[in-house]
Write a structure and sequence with these properties.
CATH topology: Rossmann fold
Strand content: 15-25%
Order of helices and strands: EEEHEHEEHEHEEH
Number of strands: 9
Number of helices: 5
Largest sheet: 7 strands, mixed
Shape: globular
Structural class: alpha/beta
CATH superfamily: Flavodoxin domain
CATH architecture: 3-Layer(aba) Sandwich
Length: 199
């Protein structure tokens, strides 16, 4: 059972309840990612900026290795990011999801979303996104994509094929993909705030 602390203020005229409620608590958005070369981290940071722009939310940006069970349980929305490996999420992300708490469905009704980075156009980005979203559905989560048809399964970035490739040690992603990451983060955060308020 969730514990709600309501402060009690006493004065000469008796005691007054100073209200607070679960609806007034900040919505928590967890962005958990694995990044091999830095591109997925750049997208994760874009998603975080978008989520923060939604207003009264707490955004946690963590590598999958840093993310704890407590982080997952405390989140109202979970956004997972991965590089594309063989048209799938990376082994590190798959292993991360395989260790989510399952018994009793504690992640049920949390909002879920995905973002990925891939080396080339049509190199498996949408398949990797869907693999993450399919896993979230197994946990009873409510999955969402980006704000329009151009990012229907979430946000993605292409990093190794013209005209989007970067040279040298630059691990940034093209501005059009950064915007998609920001839009995904904002949409998820706005939906999570509404969902928490109305539950």
């Amino acid at each position: 059972m969730r514990r709600i602390v309501i402060p009690l203020v006493c004065c000469l005229f008796g005691c007054l309840w100073v209200g607070s409620s679960a609806a007034q608590e900040r919505t928590t958005i967890l962005i958990s990612y694995y990044s091999q070369q830095g591109h997925t981290r750049a997208m994760a940071e874009a998603v975080a900026r978008g989520a923060q722009s939604a207003g009264a939310v707490t955004v946690k940006l963590l590598n999958v290795d840093e993310t704890t069970k407590e982080d997952l349980l405390a989140a109202d929305a979970i956004i997972v990011g991965s590089p594309v490996h063989n048209a799938n999420a990376s082994a590190e992300v798959v292993n991360f999801i395989n260790h989510w708490p399952f018994q009793g469905a504690p992640l049920r009704d949390k909002i879920g979303a995905a973002f990925v980075t891939g080396g080339g156009i049509s190199a498996g980005e949408e398949l990797a996104q869907l693999n993450i979203l399919h896993s979230m559905l197994i946990f009873g989560m409510i999955v969402v994509g980006g704000p329009d048809w151009t990012s229907a399964f979430g946000a993605s970035a292409i990093t190794g094929e013209a005209p989007f490739e970067k040279t040298g040690t630059n691990t940034s992603v093209a501005p059009e993909f950064v915007k998609k990451g920001e839009a995904l983060g904002k949409r998820v955060a706005e939906l999570a705030v509404k969902w928490k308020r109305n539950r």
